[in-house]
Amino acid sequence: MRNQSSSDSDEALRLAAVSFNIDNHELKQSLLLAAQSQVHQQLKDWNNAKTETQGSQSNLSKTDKNFLDSRQGLQVQVLVRKTQGDLLEQDKQPQKAIEAYSQAFNILKNHANETDFTKDNQLLTGENIESVYRRLRELNPQDEEVELALTKHLYAQLEYFLKAKNWEAADQKTYELMLNIAKREKEGYLDDEQINSFSCPDLQKIDKLWVKADKDKRFGFSVQKEIWIKTGNRLGVKVEDWTDKDYENSYKFARAVGWYDDKQEDTTSPSRGSFVSYDIQIKRIKENSAYGRGGLPSVWVR
Q1: CA–CA dist 161, 209 (Å, integer)
Q2: What is the DSSP code (8-state) at residue 17?
Q3: pTM for this structure?
Q4: Across residues 67-81, what is the average pLDDT?
Q5: Most-buried pick from 19, 39, 80, 232 (CB within 10 A)?
Q6: Number of helical (H) and strand (E) elements in the chain, helices listed first
Q7: Is 77 exposed, middle or buried (0-12, 13-18, 19+ CB in 10 A)?
Q8: Which residues are bridge partners to 274 per DSSP?
Q9: Per-residue pLDDT for 272 more than 80?
Q10: Pairwise CA distance, residues 198 & 142, whole Å
Q11: Do residues 285 and 259 make contact, with C-beta atoms less than 8 angstroms apart?
Q12: Rounded distance, CA 165 to CA 248, Å?
């Protein structure tokens, strides 16, 4: 996985590039300065970052209201307020950062159609919106409205990736969504207790999104359950209570869904075959539309 610095640099370059699609001069300058501020924030050049953020805000204040209320204007405002919030947070001004992020949040809430990241030629990405929600929640964890908005947005991102057949991104977003729902984001994993007590309505909702995403219905928790039972595995048995037969059947399941390959040599073990790396699994799924039934989502093997 790429580091955060590389991702932030790409985002700054993206904003600079998309600014050329903006017709209004003040809006364009506002977004360009916000992008430059992001670069200087990454470099920890706080003086220049502050100057450019102020310039970005100044250009917004000079923009005609009709342009500010346009689709592009609303999205630029979100991006500028997000950049402002990022800088204020780094400057140890949490209350002012909350105010900036809240302005972005309210635009997203009140103008959902204009700021819909799934539409073509949008300035905002799903990651931009998620960042606003996450930063605001981090600074103001008592705000339940923000928490609900984040969960709803994670669902929207999952559906977006599934429709695009971006299986790897959808798999990652499924994991993030489930951690969010289970309140396990800080821990970063789900143990048996959280899995067993996971919200049934949410599990069914996630499953339905996966099942309908592929014309052959290859993926989803319900597909995995069907294969699990067909390969002789028992339901509701804790791992510590497994018998040798349970372990044997679990390997049958792993083979059936493409997680384990008997033909792949494991030099670290005397046993035949080995577990398939995640990258190889995704590659095989992308290259062969008939491969990997039950192989995704891979939440359980993380």
Answers
A1: 10
A2: H
A3: 0.92
A4: 97
A5: 80
A6: 14, 2
A7: buried
A8: 261
A9: no
A10: 22
A11: no
A12: 33
**pLDDT tens per residue across span 192-211:** 888 889 999 999 999 999 99
Higher-confidence position of 273 and 251:
251
pLDDT in tens, 210-238: 999 999 999 999 999 999 999 999 998 98
DSSP code string of 198-232: S-HHHHHHHHHHHHHHSTT---SHHHHHHHHHHTT
Report how far apart, in Å, the C-alpha atoms of 61 and of each of 178, 224, 273 are: 40, 54, 64
Residue 266 tokens read as 């494991």
Bridge partners, 139 (sequence order): none
Which among 110, 111, 87 is positioned nearest to 99, based on CA atoms? 87
Say which amino acid occupies 258.
Answer: G
- The letter for the amino acid at 186 is K
Kindly tell me if the per-residue pLDDT of 271 is higher than 70.
no
Q: Residue 206 corresponds to which tokens in the numbers above? A: 């996630």
Give the Cα separation of 176 and 85 in Å (integer). 23
Q: 3-state DSSP call for residue 275?
A: strand
Rounded to whole angstroms, the maximal C-alpha distance in the chain is 72
> Helices marked H in 91-143 — which ranges?
94-110, 126-139
- Domain span(s) for CATH 1.25.40 in the chain: 4-213
At the top level of CATH, the class of 4-213 is mainly alpha
Which pLDDT value is given to residue 265?
A: 60
Q: Is the model more confident about 121 or about 69?
A: 69
Radius of gyration of the chain (CA): 23
The structure tokens listed for 273 are 């075959």
